[in-house]
Structure formats: C-alpha cells, structure tokens
Amino acid sequence: MTFPIDFHRHPKLKRLPVEVRWTFVEMNGEARIADNDGVFTHEDAEFEWPIDHLERLVSSHPTRPLVVKTDTHYVIREFPEHQETKASREERRAKNAANGAKGGRPRKNPPGTQQKPSGLRVGTDSQANETQQKAESESESEDYYSPLESQSSSNRASVSTDSFEISEHTRASAARKGVDLQGIAVALNGIGIRVDAYGAMSLANHLLEKAKSFPSAPQRYVLGCITQSPHEIAKYLHDSGLAA
User: Fold this and answer.
1) Which of 26-40, 90-104, 113-127, 201-215 comes out lowest in average pLDDT?
2) Measured between alpha carbons, how far is 74 from 138 in angstroms, rounded to an integer?
3) Separation of alpha carbons 167 and 5, rounded Å
4) pLDDT tens column, 144-157
5) 175-190 tens-digit pLDDT
6) Could you tell me if 136 and 144 are in contact, meaning their C-beta atoms sit under 8 angstroms apart?
C-alpha cells in the first residue's frame, strides 16, 4: 500500500474529519489484503466501516469522489493509479516464474562483458564483484532464509485455534498468498511476539511486497525472514501496532 508524500494535503481529504480519512486509509489497506483492487460489496464495506464514513467519502467531490458507490459495491476511485493491482502482480509473478524456469533472472553483467574501471585501488574490483555475487545469491536463493518448517507441539499449542480466530475474508487472502497464518503466529511467538490473524497477514504482505521477486515458497520465505531479522520484524509489528 502506497500513498503520495503529500497525501495528507489533498483537498478532498482535508475537508473530511480525521476519522473519515482513517476509514479511507483502512479501505486501501483492506483492499490490498483482500487483493480486490479496491472493490467492496455493500455488505462487506458497511460491516467494516460506519455507513456515515462511507457516505462522506462518496460525497467527497461532486464528480470525482474518493469512493464511488454503485448499486452493489463501494469502489475506491482511481485505485489502479495509486496502488498495485492484482493484474500487475500476477504479470510480475508470471515473469518471475518464466525467469525461474530459465535458471533465474538474467545477470546485469554476464561473464566476459564486464569492463574493469580504471583508477581503482588494488583489490577494489574483486571486492566489488564478490559483494555483487553475494547480494545476487542472497536475493535469488530461498536457501538464504533459514526456514522454520518444524515447530514443537508445545509452541503450536501456545497459539491455539480457540484464541486465533481467522475471518473468512482473511483466510481467503492467506490462501491466495500461499501462507499459513497460524504458522506465522507460532514463529513470532517463538521470538516473544504475539499477533492475531490480521497481524500475521499484514506482516506476510509486508515481507512479500519487499521481496525483489515473489518467492515460490511464500510461507518458507516469511518464516525465514522472521528467523533472520527478528529485531526488524519486532520493530515493524510494534511500530504498526500489530503486536498484542
């Protein structure tokens, strides 16, 4: 989910109460989690947010409101111009899959085409090549992320199904992304952080969006990120208010 740096200054938003602005931000976030390109049924939208907030967004401009209300849906207007759409993500994944079938993304400087720059100190060129190769291998190999594929029964029990409720909306989002939210919560519990299903889904989306290419094993990737960078993960969850 992205917004322009001057998003808060937009005339349509400045005319609205703070709580209505926040509803608009939440709508964009939920649209990304649900992968619905900013289109909500009346039932879903009016269940999630106050109807008067939705009506204020619909009436935010006479002809170009922030949200458009049709007979059946609430639609975030111009969503594809500001947020990544499902189609663009699927196109990127298809390209990544094609590159993967060919053995990975083409190297920017294939062997034999690199020119050694002049004026470098002794050892600089070899060090740069070594750094570049390490970065490429780390970004393109999922083995760099140590997977947490096995969890003890006691850890899994600590995130019981009774206390870890997943709405159908969030469950469908997790299935589309190929992640197990309870497994993510178990891994986070192992580093002393408790989250609900929404928090686990938000973290998964955050990490998958940061990846240079969509991983072929999303769950392994997310769990590996938790293992490799627990402090960074903890900071993100606490700063986002997602940690219990």
Assistant:
1) 113-127
2) 42
3) 33
4) 344 444 444 444 44
5) 998 999 999 999 898 8
6) no
**Residues near 217 by Cβ (< 8 Å), separated by ≥ 6?**
142, 147, 178
Q: Give CA–CA dist 148/200, Å, rounded.
A: 15
Q: How far is CA 175 from CA 76, 94, 172, 204, 218, in A?
A: 24, 18, 5, 12, 11
% pLDDT > 90, the chain: 31
Tokens of 142: 């999922």
Alpha-carbon gap, residue 58 to 61, rounded angstroms = 8
Half-sphere exposure (Cβ direction) of 26: Cα atoms closer than 13 Å: 14
Nearest to 214 by CA among 84, 75, 67: 84
- Per the listing, tokens 């393109």 go with 140
For 105, 111, 164, 179, 195, the CA distances from 217, given in Å and listed in that order, are: 17, 29, 23, 9, 22
Cα(117)–Cα(91) distance, integer angstroms: 37
Using only C-alpha atoms, the chain has a radius of gyration, in whole angstroms, of 22
> Which residues fall within 8 angstroms of residue 209, CB to CB, at 6 or more apart?
none
